[in-house]
Task: inverse folding
């Protein structure tokens, strides 16, 4: 299991479109991926979970990946958040 | 008898038409025993697939980008991992499909209702919308709510789901009013997009289908059962609104020159990159005030030099050869930063704010100045200092800038040699010393909001004396006149960026006393320009 802390580097937060993009990226992944924000943990493959966490721009959160391809999966997540737009 | 229902104006304009009542379909969810779990599961799969097909057809047909994006988000929600997973688990535990699905979705809808952020909370409506689509598949209910819509209709509803609005023939719709919804709900966004007057959040209404209704999207008011003479009155109001709107749209693209041929600078105040982008869609002469506070407020630490550089560079590039007046950090004890605690002050408006704070947080100030200097090569940069009360503050800032320039030279980083330095005139001291200060700076910009409060000794935020707060007071106008005259005498430019600059009732007076640089909020450009170009 690996985990990493991120800062949401956009202004509008993790709203429907970026959340949708992330859930799409994670859908084919076999690993178990979770997101933790303000003490709440959710399955990150669900766009609904992602939106409902209510991440605002600048929010600090954690991603936890568990599975055989966890390193590659974390890379996908890192790339996604490095290039996130509004 | 006329009825008036109050709500929130979500899209400007006035609509007159016949009420078209839309009721969301009533769906009754039953809890049953199930016999065949697999059958229930496969029916769920089929309902999801069919809903996706429907959405894809709508997406293909959709011509509006905003609506397309909404539909694409719905597609993602329809195949949401968590909803499918939880519903399937409930079915496997013996619950029937419609009940299992409804309970699952309700869990999420409740979760959404608790989100603080208004924008995200409003997105709970997307989920309700997707739920409706799928549950109608499951319950085999056919939807076509706007089949009987006629020309000249005003749609009245509890709430309009985004997918409902897809079926609407927009040529037939004069306006909208909904009982629920907020300024950021889909109804509001779509109405604004199509330029259709819209009121949301009416407390309740007794409007019946076919009633004559008027929607006032400015005031957030809906009238029903109106008599003919009121309809006529509103028709006049509507016509003059449309005429004014059209005239102002034409005016916005004209150069700002008085009838006698004098060029006046009409600039825009902005507090974000987006506002600058929008401002330059109009014919304006520059950005007369760029507030940098957002860089500090929407952050979790003090913004880095690089972060600031990127923003300043962007806006200077957007402005091309026009000038951009960037005000250094103007924040004080009345505001707070999530990462920095200001000391409690008895009297924050007379406390550590503006340039005083910059000197107190000298390293932070230097970072901002360095970012500004680096960005200066990308355009016509003016730097403006807030809350100055004496010459020493300007001299000290010039010394700091000199030091930073030396640093940049050593590092081999270029900066413009033509950066203008100016101050806000917003304290009585700066008015009284304007002759001394004029020798130290390249320009003045009169900030009428603070100047008014400090000259009159009237707290802007105190409702008990709000009638005393008046930028048109003789004392304030005299101060303005003094500053303009001093500027002319010493040959430096004087502009105005406070609210008075955007008040078209004062434009003529300000021109009379020699003001030739106005900086106003983007929405007021048309009105102020209208006065200037008609000025003899």
Result:
């Amino acid at each position: 299991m690996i985990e990493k802390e991120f800062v949401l580097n956009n202004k509008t937060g993790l709203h429907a479109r970026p959340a949708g993009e992330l859930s799409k990226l994670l859908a084919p992944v076999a690993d178990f991926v979770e997101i933790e924000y303000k003490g709440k943990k959710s399955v990150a493959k669900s766009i609904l979970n992602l939106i409902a966490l209510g991440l605002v721009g600048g929010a600090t959160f954690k991603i936890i990946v568990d599975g055989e391809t966890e390193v590659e999966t974390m890379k996908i997540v890192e790339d996604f958040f490095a290039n996130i737009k509004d | 008898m006329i009825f008036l229902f109050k709500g929130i104006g979500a899209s400007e304009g006035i609509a007159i038409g016949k009420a078209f009542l839309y009721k969301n379909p009533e769906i009754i969810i039953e809890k049953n025993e199930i016999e065949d779990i697999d059958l229930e599961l496969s029916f769920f799969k089929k309902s999801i697939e069919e809903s996706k097909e429907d959405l894809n057809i709508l997406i293909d047909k959709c011509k509006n980008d905003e609506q397309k994006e909404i539909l694409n988000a719905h597609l993602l929600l329809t195949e949401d991992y968590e909803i499918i997973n939880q519903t399937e688990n409930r079915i496997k535990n013996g619950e029937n499909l419609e009940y299992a699905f409804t309970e699952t979705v309700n869990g999420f809808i409740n979760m959404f209702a608790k989100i603080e952020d208004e924008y995200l909370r409003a997105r709970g409506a997307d989920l309700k919308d997707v739920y409706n689509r799928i549950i109608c598949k499951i319950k085999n209910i056919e939807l076509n709510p706007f089949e009987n819509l006629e020309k000249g209709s005003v749609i009245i509803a509890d709430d309009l789901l985004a997918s409902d609005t897809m079926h609407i023939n927009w040529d037939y719709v004069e306006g909208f009013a909904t009982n629920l919804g907020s300024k950021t709900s889909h109804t509001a966004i779509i109405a604004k997009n199509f330029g259709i007057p819209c009121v949301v959040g009416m407390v309740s209404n007794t409007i019946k289908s076919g009633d004559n209704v008027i929607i006032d999207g400015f005031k957030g008011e809906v009238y029903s059962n109106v008599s003919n003479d009121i309809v006529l009155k509103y028709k006049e109001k509507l016509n003059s609104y449309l005429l004014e709107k059209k005239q102002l749209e034409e005016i916005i693209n004209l150069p700002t020159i008085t009838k006698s041929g004098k060029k006046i600078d009409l600039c825009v105040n902005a507090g974000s990159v987006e506002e600058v982008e929008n401002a330059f869609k109009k014919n304006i002469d520059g950005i007369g005030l760029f507030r940098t506070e957002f860089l500090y407020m929407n952050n979790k630490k003090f913004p880095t030099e690089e972060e600031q550089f990127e923003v300043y560079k962007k806006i200077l590039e957007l402005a091309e050869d026009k000038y951009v007046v960037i005000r250094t950090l103007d924040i004080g004890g009345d505001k707070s930063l999530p990462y920095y605690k200001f000391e409690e002050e008895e009297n924050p408006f007379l406390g550590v704010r503006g340039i005083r704070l910059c000197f107190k947080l000298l390293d932070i100030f230097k970072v901002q100045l360095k970012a500004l200097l680096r960005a200066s090569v990308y355009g016509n940069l003016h730097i403006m200092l807030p809350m100055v009360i004496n010459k020493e503050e300007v001299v000290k800032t010039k010394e700091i800038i000199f030091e930073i320039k030396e640093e940049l030279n050593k590092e081999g980083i270029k900066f413009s040699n033509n950066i203008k330095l100016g101050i806000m005139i917003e304290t009585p001291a700066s008015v009284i010393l304007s002759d001394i200060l004029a020798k130290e700076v390249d320009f003045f910009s009169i900030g009428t909001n603070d100047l008014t409060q400090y000259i009159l000794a009237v707290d802007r935020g105190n409702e008990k004396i709000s009638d005393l707060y008046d930028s048109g007071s003789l004392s304030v106008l005299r101060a303005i006149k003094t500053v303009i005259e001093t500027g002319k005498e010493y040959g430096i430019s004087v502009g105005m960026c406070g609210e008075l600059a955007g008040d078209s009732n004062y434009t003529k007076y300000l021109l009379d006393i020699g003001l030739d640089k106005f900086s106003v909020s983007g929405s007021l450009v048309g009105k102020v320009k209208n006065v200037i170009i008609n000025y003899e």
User: Anything to note?
Assistant: Chain B touches chain A through 24 residues (CB under 8 Å). Chain B has a mean pLDDT of 89.
